[in-house]
Protein 1
Amino acid sequence: MADMIDKAIGLVNIVHIGSAAALGYLVDYRIFVCMTSWVHYCKYIYQYYWRTARTLPKYAAWKRDVLLFKTIALLNLAYIYGSPYFTKMVPIYETAVEPEMDYIGLGMVVVGYFVSISATQALGVNGTYFGIELGFVKADYCFVNGFPYNVIPHPMILSQIFALCGVFKAAHVEAWRWVLVPHVVLYLTHMTQEIYDFHNGTPWYVKAKQEEEKKSKWSPPPWSGGGQRASADKAARGRNPSLPPR
């Protein structure tokens, strides 16, 4: 049973989330928010740089962790953004509020997450979660050319930042805007890491340039006959300068 729970959720995750929930319930919900909202970004940045999940069990465990904490982070945002419409109160701050429907902000949230989901479908789940970088997806970095990658650059991250800005725009979220700032900063940090392929190794664009340089310096291999024929001609002309070149 313990093995099944560990495989499905992770015992370390249970301890972490359980501790956060206890502190959030007994002390302050904001503690729970802080302990669970940004964990997945830290795991993205760490894994992208060090690339330690090179085996299937490690990759499955890492992917489980980031999906779990991202889900909790989104639930936190949904509660902060949506609950005032039903309770007429700002969560935790207990401030009475009469939230007006911000159609522009809501539209930004809907469009942002629609584009994000479309990007995930285009890449596939493993492609989204570093499958190429870790060697589980055999493809290059430009293998997707369809929507939304043919419309905007880095749609996975930029679309979610766009959605977060829509949440930030809502007046009734003002007291919770401090939660949104780290989301955006950490997303931008990771996006920069991906753009420059900043990791403990050679960036992909440097490897591509090296491959191009190798191809430009390519000469016919000996087994093709071209190299042997050229060598034979050179030797023959050395012995007989009047011999015409082939």
Note: Residues 229-246 have pLDDT under 50 and may be disordered.
Protein 2
Amino acid sequence: AALVVVVLVVVVLVVVFVAPGIGGNEDPGEFVGEFPTPPDWQDVRTNTTSELTTTHATETQASTTQASTTTADNVGGPSLTGTTQVASSKTTTMSSMTTSSIGDACYTFAARLSIHRQLQEFDGSPDKDVYGTAVAHLCTNGTLSASATMKGGGSQLIASHIHVSDGVDGTDGADGSGPVVIGFCGSNADPHIDMGKPYAVPCSAWDDSETSTNAEMPGVFVDRTMSVGQRVKDIRARTSMYYFSFDSAASFAHWRQQTGDHRGMARGMLELSSMPR
């Protein structure tokens, strides 16, 4: 019995004096400190921002590299320098175009056309009373056009040209003959007068008033002895050596049967109408 009492006394003493020191007075927060400490959120934000900044810089560099590569592929030079070269090239080109345009010369020529009576008053000719006018605008840069109004005809118009007289026996654009240098309207099928290149447009048919109106016919340069600029300058310098002509189906058929060749139905020597503006 005395032993039991001693044991009970010891248990009571332990509960009263030892147990509170084990955990009752200890800050529970210190317990948490035994677990791995989470990273500081400011550090996380800083690191994340740094990573994002680095990633953005990498993407920007990649984009810049791609842009530089694209520019280099397109213009043969790197990045902005290549772009500057392109702008400079465009400026130079525009400057050249402007200078070239200023250097071009355009002239207007006119011709009064009528038939050659000795050649066109053959029996049954439907075109023996043809007459008309033509106006040609010719530029040294190759811009060529003409408008013509013909009256009094009956058979299909198959060709219109500017010829240069060969000057044999002192002839000129009024009475000479020579090769085609510029073609306007014409037929690319039979009956056909070959000028070496296709005609740009067909000639207009005669209307009920026996009028054929051919407006703004594109010119086709066919000369092989001069450039277009040289030829236009020569037409300006020697205008009286050139003539505008029309051919008709009836005239073509008649003279091909007679001589194996053709004769122009109507013609007129060129005259300078206006100087370049």
Note: Residues 14-101 have pLDDT under 50 and may be disordered.
Protein 3
Amino acid sequence: MHLMQHISAFLTLVLTVTVSLTNALHCPRDRSRNVRNLLKEVVYPLFTQVKTSVPDTCLFSPERDKYLLQEENKVSEGISKWYCNYCGKGFYSEDYLDRHFDNRHSEYVREDKSSVCFADYCDIMRCDILAGRRKKEFWDVSLCLESDMKDLMDDCERLMSACVPDGLSKNATEFLITHMTENVCSFLTCKKYWQSAVEEENDGVIFYSILTVFLIIVFTIYYCVAYHYFYTDTFTDSYYETYYDRHHPVSTPQVGRQQEGIPGTRRRIMEDIAEHEVS
């Protein structure tokens, strides 16, 4: 009896591992995630704008995602805090949580006929480019054929058109087709293939812009101070007057000094300073 239980447990384990390996080989989670993330950022919001949902007839519908049930049971509390909502175990990254799903909860991977492996469309969604696994190189650009790209673009436009729900107004239909094509399919050319479909905030540009404004303000203040110091009497007159008043508390009546004017006053101050230094 115990032997049969051990054999049954062993076969169950082997079956689970086999299913996990099969899913990992035929539908890589990381590539599926790349497609899913792109759809969430540049496709699904378009349907929200026209106040409709992605139809089930669309291959990119979130309801047809092969890993939908597991994705809905991921709990994130930061970049390094991920939890399995099935059993409550915590992990340091989403990749480790995915491995946990493969090993412990593979029964929640959809295998029905309507389920779709998003990774199968990585050629259209440019998974390797968006994930940074592939960089732009000279020979890739030089050997790129527009005819091959045209075939990909045609497939992309056909798939996107199939995602437009029935019953929409003409304006809403045109809006969805135009923007889905622009956000996804338009990058399937030799010129734009290596560009990002998601607008990224350029922190470097912002930093250097702030630094430039700061330096302009600093240099403006510096040159104003330097100009007044070397080319005006703003600093020298006040120094001489202060020096003179400090060493000559009792001086010639102010009426006489006012009559001498500014040049005479400065000359008298300079003469008094010279006499003081000699004495």
Note: The longest strand covers residues 74-76.
Protein 4
Amino acid sequence: MSRARALLLVLLVFAAQANSSWVTIGETSRDCSLCSRIGFYDRTEFYAFLVTAGFAVYELNANGKTELQILRKEFDTMLDILPNKAELFEVTMMKFDIENASQGIAQRPNQRGYYSVLRIGIKNDGYATSISKMTKKGTFAPPALNSLSSMQRSFLRNSRRMITDTIINNQEVYDEATNESNKKDTAASDTTRTSPEKNNSQYHQSGYDSAMSTPPPTEKARTSSSSDDGTTLATDPSVKSKYGLLEQLFGKDSEEIPSGIK
């Protein structure tokens, strides 16, 4: 977890050299998403990284369905070590109509939802204090920044093994990736969207431990084709399907896919 956070912190501090802009944390389909800003193209990889770094957990909602819970306080905890945090970053929750806001048109009151958001960058004289005000200025995507693409590639390379381990060992992450009902990318998985008054410390207390209780893969799970109970992993459909997903995400010849279970 600490390595994942360290990698993200380096990238965020670099991105903060640009003028201030807002990104959504749980919602990933827009240009103004953290997912896009740090270089992810696939929601599965991004969610797996959030779980790996302890920024999110999967929990049952009121309808008995598993959904991603964003732990905003964990972002604050990571950023607190920076002496200039207040100038460069802000983690909060905002209510807005993301569909219309992304198009720069009037927002519909009945379509507004609560979203966990992160401000990244230098506060200039006219910086936007919210996503709604950012769109009124005629921009929705964060500003361009020289060498950001190179930093993103380095971040993704260094975090890929952790993402792989999380997909393999965390069933909720895998289910999210393969459940057809979750293929539509919305912010419904962001718990703050529908529960604005719910104290996030609830999820910090109950959900954080459950996410971190997933043990890292043993060396045998990574390199061997046999499990402790004698089951051949290479012929186990559930295991093979997970590696099929990894091949789809990272490429068939990726070194991050353990060769013993291909």
Note: The beta strands are 21-24, 56-60, 66-70, 89-96, 113-120.
